[in-house]
Amino acid sequence: MTRFFDSDIFYAFRTSPVAIVSALVTAILVLSAVFAPLIAPTNPFDPASLNLMNGFTRPMEPNAFTGETFLLGTDDQGRDVFSTILYGLRISLFVGVSAVLFAMVLGIFLGLLSGYVGGWTETIIMRAADVQLTFPSILVAMLIFGVAKGVTPVEYRDQMAIWVLILAIGLSDWVQFARVVRGATLVEKSKDYVAAARLIGRSPLRIMLRHILPNVLSPVLVIATISLALAIIAEATLSFLGVGAPATQPSLGTLIRIGQGFLFSGEWWILFFPACTLLALALAVNLLGDWLRDALNPRLR
Amino acid sequence: MHRLSTALALVLALPATAEEFNFAVTTDPQTMDPHAVNSTPVLGFLNNVYEGLVRRGKDMSIEPSLAVSWEPIGEGEGWRFKLREGVTFQDGAAFNADDVVFSYERAASEQADTSSWFAPVSEVIKVDDYTVDIMTTAPNPIFPDSIANWMMMDSGWAEANGAARPDKDQGNYATLNANGTGPFQVVSRQPDLETVLEPHAGWWGEVEHNLTRVTMTPIQNPATALAALLSGDVDFINPVPIQDVARLEGNPEVRVIQGIEARVIMLGFDQQEGSAESGQGGADMFLDPRAREAVAKAINVPAILQTIMRGNAEVASQMVSPAMRGFSEANAAPYVYDAEAARSLAEEAGLAGQTIAFKCPNDRYLNDEAVCQAVTSMLAQAGMDVSLDAMPVSNYWPELRADNFDMYLLGWSPGTFDAEHPIRFLAATQDDEAKLGSWNFGGYSNARVDELLPMIQSEIDDTARQAMLDETAKILQDEVAYVPLYVQPLVWGARSGVELTQRPDDFFILRWVTVN
Amino acid sequence: MLSFIVKRVGQSVLVLLITGLVAFSMFTFVGDPIDNMLGQERTIEDVERLREQLGLDKPFVVQYYRFLEQAVQGNFGVSYRQGRPVAEILLERAPATLELAAVSGIFAILMGIALGVFTAIRRNGFAANLIMSASLIGVSLPTFLIGILLIYLFSVELGWLPSFGRGDTVDLGGWTTGFLTASGLKALILPSITLGLYQMTLIMRLVRSEMLEVLRQDYIRFAKARGLSDRVINFRHALKNTMVPVITVIGLQLGSIIAFAIITETVFQWPGVGLLFINAIQFVDIPVMAAYLMLISVMFVAINLLVDILYAFIDPRLRVAA
Question: What ipTM was estimated for this complex?
């Protein structure tokens, strides 16, 4: 731990106000998502708790029929926007983080494999990456959605959408990781220490994991951070196109899709607050990724 | 394509004159062929270009069009139509009885989508050039009412262009081109992009409109369409998103035209044994009428209309709206919201502990997904566990056909504007041979209803007919075959200065439009 | 060298075939076209008959084989929705998308390079930092939302620019262009910004970091020491050297501009191939979806192939590795 606080990275962090602010914003958002059930005044995912007559209540103003007041107003279903954002943030973050982890693990594995083994393995993996790139991710999502619908029993349909999103976004993201890792592996492989490790009879798997992987971690970390922001946006876009989280358990993207229908009618808060939350989250993560890239690239400092 | 000249003309022209009229629709008509697809976007648009023997007036009543008069033959063997003389098609050819016979053969052919209109017809006979007899297999009092959208096509034009029959698969000349007798003719057509109409100089009727050129642009995104209306890029949009009505009303440059559509939105149930999707003992949950009644009582329709529909719709009591012929005044009371009664009914019927698979379209009816969400939470408040699955309509109908539901949302607009229509399609026992119950996805079946339907269809006496319609409506209401929710509103938006007439069938009739 | 190219082309064809197969297997899940082709009063028999007529009752592999058979003869079938040959529709729609992509591309490149150079030179200046942060807002909001907000601001509130479509177009022998009319040019502004914003940010950040890298090099320091003016150093030497990676990225981004156009075209009702594709999904117009996906695949695979072959020319070692 002390080693970390003494490190260059921490020094760079401490001296960069942008990094501190964006880390703080990210932390606040992540914590409020994790503890949403404790913070949120209502549970928007419980249909039995909603009162339709609360619909379209303005922020901080009592509802004309029920007299209830909501911090950030309510949406068309009478859901408290503040609570819904917290719960939606939870879904968006969960989807984003899981999708990136999934893409990262898959990408690193395939990248190492193709870079180290080469030959036909490499050809197949890299051509698979080409196929992947040709498919717009919305189509991948639709495909997986359709298949999943056919095989999921009705009780699990509600949760299905989230796993489909993770799979769809993850699948369209792994290529970047694979390409970077493969490139770095090709470079590392030709170096003397790898040849030495091979000579003393270390297994290829061990060489890959112990010797090559640590050397490609910093670009992977940068890609992962930027991918996280992209994944959160992608989730929103997919939900906008109607293949995302269901309206009964909305993510931030679904909330924005619902809210944009009320932009012209004057119920601005249904769109505005979820959009701001999404912007804050994506911006903070992007800034963090940006800073990380500069910090990990010593020549730029 | 004469786009170069058109475009240059537009560039050189002075600011567009008021008589040039632009309007936006959500769905482009799939075809210009009046017999190929029986849908509101197609028939509504083509009513400006083609004409039938009869047409509907501003109040939906049947009035003469290409026929000047008609009368029953004998004891209900058929109908004799006297045709209007001196009518010409837009290409200059004359209209006569041969075109009627041809249009019957074309519209009733297997390749046509309108063939079901002619199920009661046995033969169409040309008596002379301006007299046609349409013979029916049984007395059919509402036949003239049912053919307002049967449009006349020129036999010579269709045959010369290889379009004697509609072609849904490959398309043909009539898919992209039109030649009717109507007040407007299609001068250019780019599917999904733009369709341009100009007045037909040789039209037989008296011109009420003052339009010189009409452009229709499909815009799918409702927000974009609204922006186009507000910024003056288009003069008319249909529909206006319901939530934006209030804002438009406060804007002096535009106005909102509201009405009630013929379409009733309702809930349907799986009532066939052992076919529901969850398949874990809960399969037959809606076989019990008490379960359906529980749903009917759990839904607070006025609250849905108040918030989601913003006071723009009316509660429905039966499968047709009060504006339709044959509406049952005797059964005009809707189900009453009573959450407590619903809760105990649901318990009695054994709904507790089961998950109801509720299917819903999200791009078919006004605010359909939001309504389904509200229904879901209302049922949850009455102790029912609902899993809502909303999807685009292209996935929706296959899902219903595959019986993958316990409960679903359906909207029905009777093509004949008569209460018999939904009975035939939604309440009659499914029978492919007799073409009955083809939209009765839930498999509702009642012997008395099946017995009443043919009697209703051939009864000439209005009072006797209404009595049978009342009896049917009562059975359906008592057994909760469907839960009617509300009559869908019609909300059109126009620039101020545009005068128009709104009809409950959602057809936008250009000959009634004037621009000041 | 020749054998490398032959091998690489062979692989690309294989990629295309697999892409097509995957595409066809998913059409079944997009929905059923029949309901859109028949009206309210259709019977179950009508549904079955039409399904058979369209060959939809066959397994997807058979459907795919039929499609390929026709496609190699240059026939992409007839659109279910429009009843016209798909090739004709695609050709008609292509100019709209290509013009939009070109304008957004040029916007992204010019603005991206200009802002990138500026932020690199004024590395710690207030304006540069502001631009850097503001550019991140552009990539932190979904494209569709940016489009809707632009429409709201510039069309509805201010009334300066049209809210949808291409405006008036002029037909130049089959190519409809919006460049020759005032309304056509005005209509291009909002969609181009929406579509190009992401690429602009990308290029700006790339130019900035490459510039910073180059400015650190010894020869720039020497140039400075020799007393060359900042302007000459920045533009004659530094910028020139950043261009190679920038051009590579721009080339790769070209394809994704066209793929991303789907969303922009939907929001702005822009009559291009992206909107055509979205409509095709809604109506399950399988011939159009198949042709569009094939077109996009060919484009991406061709770009990849070209890049690989170019690299092989530049760097002979890669030839052996491949």
Answer: 0.80
The pLDDT of residue A193 is 78
Distance CA B101, CA B135 (A): 12
Nearest CB among A130, A241, A300 relative to C15 is that of A130
Dihedral pair phi/psi, residue B423, rounded to 5°: -65, -45
Q: Between residues A301 and A267, which one has the greater pLDDT?
A: A267
Angstrom distance (rounded) from CA B127 to CA B97:
8
Rounded CA separation B494/B380 (Å): 40
- Residue B24 CA to residue C164 CA, distance in Å, equals 11
Q: Work out the pLDDT band at B214, boundaries 50, 70, 90.
A: very high
The per-residue pLDDT for C315 is 57
- Contact between residue C81 and residue C279 where contact means Cβ atoms under 8 Å apart: yes
Residue C70 vs residue B218, higher pLDDT:
B218
- Which of residues A194 and C88 earns the better pLDDT score? C88
CB contact under 8 A, B221 and C165: no
More confident residue, B214 or A176: B214
- Are A70 and A57 in contact, with CB atoms under 8 Å apart? yes
- Neighbouring C-beta atoms of residue A32, cutoff 10 Å: 18
Residue B499 dihedral angles phi and psi, to the nearest 5°: -100, 135
Q: Which two tokens stand for residue B420?
A: 């018999």
Backbone angles phi, psi at B474, to 5 degrees: -65, -45
pLDDT at B300: 94
Question: Measured between alpha carbons, how far apart are the two ends of chain B, in Å?
Answer: 31
Cα Rg of chain A (Å, integer): 23
Q: Is the peptide bond before A219 cis (omega within 30 degrees of 0)?
A: no
pTM for this model (two decimals)? 0.83
Which SS3 state, helix, strand or coil, does residue C51 take?
A: helix
What six digits make up the tokens of A250?
């909305």
Residue B2: partners with Cβ closer than 8 Å, 6 or more residues away: B188
Supply the mean pLDDT for chain C: 80
Angle between helices C2-30 and A119-134 (to 10 degrees): 50
Query: What is the per-residue pLDDT for B16?
Result: 43
Check: CB of residue B159 under 8 Å from CB of residue B172. no
Does the CB of A183 have a partner CB in chain C at under 8 Å?
Answer: no
Residues of B with CB under 8 A from a CB of A: 222-223, 226-227, 230, 241, 243-244, 246-247, 277-280, 300, 303-304, 306-308, 355, 357, 362-363, 369-370, 373-374, 376-381, 386-390, 392, 395
